[in-house]
Structure formats: C-alpha cells, structure tokens
Amino acid sequence: MFWRLFTTHAVLLLSSVGLLALVIVERVEQPDLRHTVWTAAALLGLAALGLARWLAQRITDPIQATTAGMEQIAGGTYSHKIYMPDSDKLAPLVQRFNRMSERLAAEFAQLEEDRQQLRTILGGMVEGVVALDAEQRVLFANERALQFLGLKPEAITGRKLWEVVRRRSLQEFVRRALADPEPHQEELNWDGPAAKSLTVYAARMPGPPPRGAVLVLHDTSELRRLEHLRQEFVANVSHELKTPLSIIKACVETLLEGAVDDREHRGPFLERIAEQADRLHCLILDLLTLGRIESGMGTFEPQAVSLADVVATCLERHRARSEAKNQLLEAVPPFSEPNTKNGIAAWADEEAVQQILDNLIDNAVKYTPAGGRINVRWRAEDGQVCLEVQDTGIGIPERDLPRIFERFYRVDKARSRELGGTGLGLSIVKHLVHALHGSVTASSRLGQGTSFCVRLPRAPAP
Fold first, then answer.
1. What are residue 458's phi and psi, to 5 degrees?
2. Residue 116 domain-assigned?
3. Which of 219, 243, 276 marks a domain boundary?
4. What is the pLDDT at residue 19?
5. CA 334 to each of CA 4, 308, 318, 349, 378: distance values in angstroms, whole numbers, following the listed order
6. Residue 250 belongs to what domain range?
7. 286-298 pLDDT tens trace
8. What is the pLDDT of residue 233?
9. How confident is the model at residue 88 (pLDDT cuts 50, 70, 90)?
10. Phi/psi of residue 34, each to 5°?
11. E strand residue ranges, 191-309
12. What is the tally of structural domains in the chain?
C-alpha cells in the first residue's frame, strides 16, 4: 500500500516537472541556460520525490498502525491501542478504534470471569456434571464427575464418552437423551470393586439440530444403603415383636382351653407370659430410647461425672447376675488417680454414662461363660477419659466387628435370643456416646474375649 501510493505521487510529480522542463528547454537557445534549467528540473524532481514520500507516509502510517492493531486484537490482545497525534486527520477514526478495543477487552474479561466463576461453581458441586456435544464428545467434566466415573481429566476431555466409560447402561441412556428433547432420569447400578448407585439426569441442549446434552450425576449409594437398613430394621422389629407375641398368644390359648383350671401346670404358662411381656416391654423402651436419641430430643446435662462412682454403682446392679454364673466382676482403677473430689471425671451426662456402662456390662455378663472374668477400667488420656469393659467371653468374629453397633445385628441370632436382650443395646451405646461428643471402639479375639473402649471428653480441673 505504502509503495503504491508513493509511486503514484512520484510519477505524477516527476511527469509534471519533466513536462515543465521540456517546455522551457525548447524555448531556451543558450546551452548554459539549458543546463541550468535541467539542473533546476532535477532538483525540483528530487524535491517532488521527497514530498511524495512524505505524503504517502502521512496517509499510510495510520492505516498500517490500524491494520497492526486489528491483527493484535485478532491474536487475542484485546486491550491494544493505537497512538497518533490529535492533529492527524485520521485521529477520530483511531479514537473510535481505541474505544472499540477497550470495550472488547472489558467484554472478554467479563466473559473470562464468568467462565471461571462457572467452573468454580461446577467444580464445587457434590453432583457430577458432564457436558457432551452432539457426537457424544466430552466438552467438560467437573471433579466430582471424574470421581464417580473413575477417570482422570486428561483422559476424557475431547474424547467420546463411550470410549472412556465402558458402561452399556450409561451409553444407552445418553443415546436416548440425545434423541429426545424431554429431560431423562434413570438410576444406574455401578458394579465392580467399588459398587455404587448413580442417579443420572440428562437434558438436551436447545437448538436445531441438537448441539449435545448435559449430564448430572448424583451418588445415591448412601441413600440406598440407608433404605436397605430401614427395610432391614422394619423386618427385624416385626420379627422381634412377633416372636414374644406368638408365645404369649399360644400360652393364653392353652390356658383358655382349660389349663387355667389346672393349678399344677398353669404356673409355667403364666411365667412364660410374664417373661415375654417383660421382653416386649424392654424392646419398646429401647426403641423409644433410640428414637429419642436419634431425633435429638434427648436432653443431656453435662457435668463432671466421677468414673469411679459410676463404675461402682453399675457393678452393684449386675453383681447378683454375675455371681449366679460364678463370674468375677471387678473394677480396676488406674495406677494413679488424681487426689481430687471426683478423681478422673468425664464431662458428660451422668444418666447417659450409666446407661452406656449398663449396656456394656450386661452384654459382657451374657456372653461370658460361667467362671469367666469381667474387668472395668478407666483412665485419662489426651484431654479425654477412656472407660473400658473387658471380658473373657466367647468373642466376636473379625468380619462381624464393623456391624455390631447396628440395630438388631446379632452375631449368633439363635444364641442371642436364647440369652435374652433386644439387640439394641450396642446401638444405644453408639448413639449415646456420639451425643456426648465421644467415640466407642471394640476389639475381640474369637474364644478369648471382647473389649469395648468408650472415650468421652474429660471434665475441666476444678
């Protein structure tokens, strides 16, 4: 552009100077004067060339600067500006260009900020989000989706979903979602080492033809587990209620059929009815206690609770049962207990601590054979107190240890019902301990005994 303008101006000026020189030379007859004319024409030609170059630069420089600015913007430098003297005739055009550049930079900065905010929001969601194009290529997947699908970021973006997720159920679901404008929802079971249940929502992107779909994945594994526990709980409660009721009904029917008049044989039936009624009463009380704790309706009054006093009281309540089985039930105080009013004290509700210890000692007495030993220890450690109940009973298989705090879970169902109890004792222990901001653990060796350790906050020094 520059050289074209420069050449045009130069040719016009040189042509004008040449014509003028020829006209003058033809009318001048003296050689010296002709030489002077030619010299002047040459000088005028050089001046014309310089003027042409100056004029060409004055016009082309702003154009070149504007062109370079456009290339900068096209390359992504949206805030690029062109600087030019205000006296230049192209200054208004350059000013408009600079204002356009500023607006573009602001718009793209806002778009980038919105994009980063959207990525942050999607990345912080507990649900997985996957965006697909019409060919099922992955456009975006947040961190949660990658966790659900077991993938790495570099292994999914830009690839087709069926290439990286080998799940026919998901592939069929995505195919139907892309073909139907209505949103879809389906629960998919994820088999494998880490089995889980995923609820997948799919909505097709608007526009003809369809541009893709957005998938939202929600892990419902915990919900399904809780639903299974609820069903199991209802079934267990029904069974636990049905058994004593059936026995009571059978005894009552026998008495009504004439056994009530048989003074010699009616006693065992009446004793059986009373025994099962007590069992029902205990079961209902435990259910009410568990429900009250789980709902948060239980009122606790934290105070300094002397573990030595609580242990002594609880042991006295169970002494007769243990002596009937020739068991040794004893308290084992710590080697050195603080010489204070309460000794080692927990910061807890006294009634709740007694209920926790009662349930643990009751279980130990039940499952420890005649002649066995049950020790209750307590100690302070790291701002907490540890209350431990250790027995030499039948023990618990290792595979059953993680489940012993579940409601109605019994290691040996037949033996547990034979020994009595509701199957809710350890569940009540766990919920009470958690309500008191503590923890409970169990360890056991089959045939050698079991140990339960309850840790509670320690009471502050008086």
1. -85, 145
2. no
3. 219
4. 52
5. 104, 10, 22, 22, 6
6. 227-294
7. 778 777 777 766 6
8. 74
9. low
10. -60, -45
11. 196-204, 212-219, 303-306
12. 4
In terms of phi and psi (left: phi > 0; alpha: psi -120 to 50; beta: otherwise), the region of 136 is left
What CATH number is given to the structural domain containing 366?
3.30.565.10
Task: Provide the pLDDT for residue 1.
Answer: 46
CA dist 110 and 101 (Å) reads 14
pTM for the whole structure: 0.56
230-240 b/e (C-beta count within 10 Å ≥ 16 → b): eeeeeebbeeb
Domain assignment of residue 113, yes or no? no
Which amino acid is it at 219? D
Q: What angle do CA 431, 437, 441 make, to 5 degrees?
A: 60
- Mean pLDDT for 351-372 is 89
Confidence bin at 455 (pLDDT 50/70/90): very high
337 and 420, same structural domain?
Answer: yes
Is the dihedral angle over the CA atoms 111, 117, 119, 122 positive or is it negative? negative
Least confident of 215-224, 333-342, 397-406: 333-342
Q: Are residues 251 and 328 in the same domain?
A: no
Q: What is the CATH number of the domain that holds 209?
A: 3.30.450.20
Give the mean model confidence (pLDDT) for residues 15-26.
52
Tell whether 112 is covered by a domain.
no
- Look up residue 40 and give its two tokens: 């002047």
Integer Cα distance of 245 and 349 in angstroms:
35
CA distance 417 to 321: 18
- Most confident among 9-18, 105-114, 188-197, 269-278 (mean pLDDT): 269-278
In a shared domain, residues 441 and 374: yes
On whether both 355 and 425 belong to a single domain, the answer is yes
Is 412 part of a structural domain of the chain?
yes
